[in-house]
Amino acid sequence: MASVNRPNKQQNHPLDDLIRKDRIPHIWCPGCGIGTIFASCLTAIKECVATGKNGFDLDKFVMVSGIGCSGRAAGYVKLDSFHTTHGRAIPFATGLKLANRDLNVIVFSGDGDLFAIGGNHFIHAARRNINITVICVNNLNYGMTGGQVAATTPYNAKTTTTPAGNAENPFSLPLLAYASGATYVARWTMLHTRDLTVSINEALSKKGFSFIEVLSPCPVNYGRRNKEKPLETLKLYQEKSIIKNGADPSELDIDMEKGIILGKFVDIDKPTHSEKYDKLYRIE
Amino acid sequence: MEFWRIPFDANEIDITLGEVYILDDRCKGCGYCIEFCPRQVLQISDKFNKKGYHPPVVVNPESCVNCHYCEVICAEFAIYSVEAVSCPNKN
User: Fold this and answer.
1) Is A114 a residue whose pLDDT tops 60?
2) CB–CB of A7 and B90 under 8 A?
3) Which of A3, A91, A95, A221 is most buried, taking the most CB atoms under 10 A from its CB?
4) pLDDT at residue A256, rounded to an integer
5) Which residues in chain A are contacts of B62 at CB distance < 8 A?
6) Confidence of residue A53 (pLDDT cuts 50, 70, 90)
7) Which of chain A's residues have a Cβ under 8 Å away from the Cβ of B75?
């Protein structure tokens, strides 16, 4: 065995400079994936700033989030952040971006906030191609309010309000984003953390509306009612996920029997809202 | 590590060594780092932290190759690894 020089004990986590340490430990339950996704987002921001390309600057990053468990992220990040009203994270982000085009605006929120109450804002921001990055933590239910059925709950899943199973069909979020005109669409799970970090990094550098869906376990509300322990959910992600970049957006339903398709589905270039606006109204 | 076929340059390659640090009081005992460590470095401990969870403990320090996976999967910012500098004249 090689002899090893132990470095002096370093007491700081590498991301400690980007989180509000006085707020840690955060409110997220043991086994919840939001913390991992949040850490991955911070790592991506740090990597972007470290490369120095596109003039990335920590002072120019803004994190906007709505209401819900994942909405708490804005309160834990040591950057400019904004915790907005329910479902209105994207409108606030749009306003920020329109008022100050130098900002890199990240919307970090949950599926209930972005696709149920904020569904219209999402499709219209994608239609306008506002230059923001949207990270959606999809835990398949309304976690914070007690596990009610959401717009993303799979067919036949048990929740507080559907004790015999959900009779409705869920949204396919990447399909919705693609159909509305997003320029970058990807889906990962919280287990594929490194791919997720790379993907967030790409989305931040991407000009136009970027959307990343991240599947995350909700052990307390969703997992408990559907007999899935958090580690079992992660094992399911490991066994059932199929990485298929460039897959057809119409085949991306979340079906654990068939397997969940992950990857980067859309990466196209389109003029952003500001560019089109300038062409008509700010003629030099 | 056991190789099925030994690479020609196996003797020349320096495998990185890592050292894992655990911030006990941030841990919520989800066990992801223990389960997904590729080298089985960690194990759940019997001790309690401030909040009453069982944080992981390093049981196999010389196996760590500094892959940082525990660091990226941890939702609590409670575990990280740094590179341990190995002596150049190892045998």
Assistant:
1) yes
2) no
3) A221
4) 84
5) 1, 4
6) confident
7) 28, 32-36, 38-39
Count of positions (residues) in chain A: 284
How far apart are the CA of A7 and the nearest CA of chain B, in angstroms?
Answer: 6
Q: Which fold has domain B17-84?
A: Alpha-Beta Plaits (3.30.70)
CATH of the domain at A235: 3.40.50.970
Q: How distant is the Cα of B75 from the closest Cα of chain A, in angstroms?
A: 4
Taking the CA of residue A35 and the nearest CA in chain B, the distance in Å comes to: 4
- Give the amino acid at B52: G
What residue spans define the domains of chain B?
17-84
Decide if A123 is inside a domain.
Answer: yes
Q: Between residues A108 and A258, which one has the greater pLDDT?
A: A108
Assess if residue A5 is contained within a domain.
no
Mean pLDDT for A68-84 is 94
State whether B76 and A26 contact (CB < 8 Å): yes
As a whole number of angstroms, the distance between CA A183 and CA A181 comes to 6
pLDDT tens-digit readout, B47-59: 999 999 999 999 9
Q: For residue B3, with 0-12 CB atoms within 10 Å meaning exposed, 13-18 middle and 19 or more buried, which class applies?
A: exposed
In order of A23, B20, B44, B61, the CA distances from B48 in angstroms are: 21, 19, 11, 21
Residues in chain B with CB shorter than 8 Å from the CB of A13 are 23, 71, 77-78, 80
Residue A258 in any domain: the answer is: yes
- Token pair for A76: 């834990």
Confidence band for B86, pLDDT divided at 50, 70 and 90: low
CB contact under 8 A, A4 and B26: no
The position carrying tokens 């589905």 is A265
Considering its fold, how many domains does chain A have in total?
A: 1
Partner B contacted by A8 (CB < 8 A): no
Residue A54 pLDDT class (50, 70, 90 cuts): confident
Looking at residue A43, its amino acid is T
| Pairing mode, strands A241-243 and A260-267 | parallel
**Is the confidence metric ipTM above 0.95 for this complex?**
no
Contact A83, A91 (CB under 8 A): no
Rounded to an integer, the average pLDDT of A257-261 is 90
> Which pLDDT score, from 0 to 100, does residue B91 have?
40
Contacts of A14 in chain B (CB under 8 A): 71, 80
- Residue A67, pLDDT > 60, answer yes
> Which residues in chain A touch residue B30, judged by CB atoms under 8 angstroms apart?
30-31, 230
